[in-house]
Design brief:
The chain is α+β, with helices and mostly antiparallel strands. The protein folds into 3 domains: about 180 residues, BirA Bifunctional Protein, domain 2 (2-Layer Sandwich); about 40 residues; about 50 residues, no CATH class. Helix content is about 35%, strand content about 15%. Strands 1-3-5-4-2 form a 5-stranded antiparallel beta sheet, sandwiched between helices. A two-stranded antiparallel sheet has the order 6-7. A hairpin with a 2-residue loop joins strand 6 and strand 7. Helix 7 crosses helix 8. The relative contact order is 0.11.
């Protein structure tokens, strides 16, 4: 099930993007991992290529274009856009997906949907969760250096003009997700419905909160094990996970809204209804 994600960056150091793609980084702090001599550690396996950069590297080409067009000179300017296509781990054994094949698909996706932009396309064989999911990073300079045809996701004449900037709107993301789904269908790869999302949607912030919490819990349990103490808890649960579980439990047996509200209140959660929408508030003891 391929997924698609977008991150915008105001970092003026374009070299940092290539450094992240080619060297090991701590998954929580996002800082480079150093060896015993304080040197950067190259990633074991990756494929990387640049587009529309001529004979220069990505960082130099982007900075030169920005100066030429007088764009991306302010701190608040979005300097680059980072798109990530993550493929299903099952695509490797079941559908013959390789790092080289994924790199070719990423390059083609970049050429078709981000024409006129200087870009880096880099494929990694595994993600930070070590599930074996091949994924492609596409990093583009927000500035467009050539006139391009009007693409379906573009809404304004400026979206095609040389010297103007890329805009990642909600409509554009819907279009890109549909294109990823079409690509996976064409290539006989696993895919889910990216347009309708999941019933149990987890935000990026909650995902990393769970990863960090689990790491801290594992470290604490390791220290307890060293002294012969049994662990009190082995699986970390975020506050949102606990709230979702409590709501589902109450829903499974409630016969009315009043009954539902009362069951939640017993667990330290109050619920309010306003204009057809429910909001929840947790009492302090619920979060302990």
């Amino acid at each position: 099930m391929a997924t698609f994600k977008h991150i915008s960056s105001k970092n003026a150091d374009y070299g940092a993007a290539e450094q992240y793609l080619t060297f090991e980084h701590d998954e929580f702090t996002m800082k480079p991992t150093l060896d015993g001599n304080g040197r950067l550690i190259p990633r074991d396996d990756y494929r990387i290529s640049s587009l529309n950069c001529g004979d220069e590297n990505f960082a130099i080409a982007c900075m030169r274009s920005n100066l030429h067009y007088g764009k991306n000179q302010k701190r608040e300017d979005v300097k680059s856009h980072h798109y990530i296509i993550s493929f299903d781990p099952r695509d490797v054994p079941d559908n013959g997906l390789t790092v080289d094949r994924a790199q070719a698909l990423g390059e083609q996706f970049c050429k078709e949907h981000f024409p006129g932009h200087q870009a880096l396309v880099c494929t990694h064989p595994d993600g930070h969760n070590h599930s074996g999911n091949i994924h492609v990073h596409i990093v583009i300079n927000s500035l467009r250096i050539a006139e391009v045809p009007l693409l379906p996701y573009m809404e304004r004449p400026a979206d095609t003009r040389e010297g103007c900037k890329h805009r990642c709107t909600d409509a554009a993301m819907e279009y890109f997700k549909a294109e990823v789904m079409e690509m996976c269908h064409r290539e006989n790869l696993y895919q889910i419905d990216l347009l309708n999302g999941s019933k149990n949607r987890v935000t990026e912030r909650e995902y990393w909160a769970k990863r960090k919490g689990q790491a801290a819990l594992d470290k604490e349990n390791a220290s307890h094990a060293a002294t012969g103490e049994p662990p009190k808890q082995t699986k970390f649960e975020t506050d949102k996970e606990k709230l979702r579980r409590t709501i589902r439990t109450a829903l499974s047996s409630a016969v009315s809204f009043e009954d539902f509200s009362g069951k939640l209140l017993q667990q330290g959660v109050t619920v309010k209804e306003s204009r057809g929408r429910l909001s929840y508030c947790c009492c302090p003891f619920f979060l302990t």
